[in-house]
Amino acid sequence: MNNTPLPTGDEKTRAVRTMFDAIAGRYEMVNRLMTLGLDSRWRRRAVSDLRLPANSLVLDVAAGTGDFTRELERQSQRAVATDLSYGMLHAGRAMQRRVQADASAMPFRTAGFDGLTCGYALRNFTDLAATFDEMARVVRPGGRLSLLEVAEPEKGLLRAGFRIWFRHVVPFIGSLVSDRAAYHYLPRSTAYLPRSEQIVAMLNDSGFSAVNHRRVMGGLSQQFIATRSV
Predict the structure, then answer these.
(1) Is residue 2 part of a domain?
(2) Where are the beta strands (DSSP E) in 6-91?
């Protein structure tokens, strides 16, 4: 087991950017293998849960290579992709509007978006509270937010199987087809993630209301849905 302390502060920001730049070329392929293709279904539901009219302007934070961005466009929204990693944005396809930026200090006008999505990135932000504040700043009052993040089933065989898969099989797959260090870091990075009730409280503190948390497929993933307070 790797007991090296996880990076924090500016060191974490640099490490995350470098890591995602390195794995950008095979990121989507490894994601499909890791989730057995289920992540596409979860993103479709997450976009639908925004409940926004067609042609709304939606910001995809930590967009990576554009899975959420493309799903937004498929569901008739106008998507803007932003990510810390230039390599990820460069490797993406069918992303008409993309901006490299740190999510805790985004170069977008206040209340400029009708909605916001973010997929599996909360644990990668150096300052999660500041990032939630920025998300609230750029979403208009009454706008919607839909976030996906990793989770772990609470008990039983599903929990045991998930731990074997996520902690051992996923790093092995990543080592074979992409970057060994990055996919050994992935299970460890969940240590950064606050508990779900803490995330709900943080979103409330940042200016979101009606924050709803749900577990996806028995806890294989989790989703947060909220409305920007008026």
Answers:
(1) no
(2) 57-61, 78-83
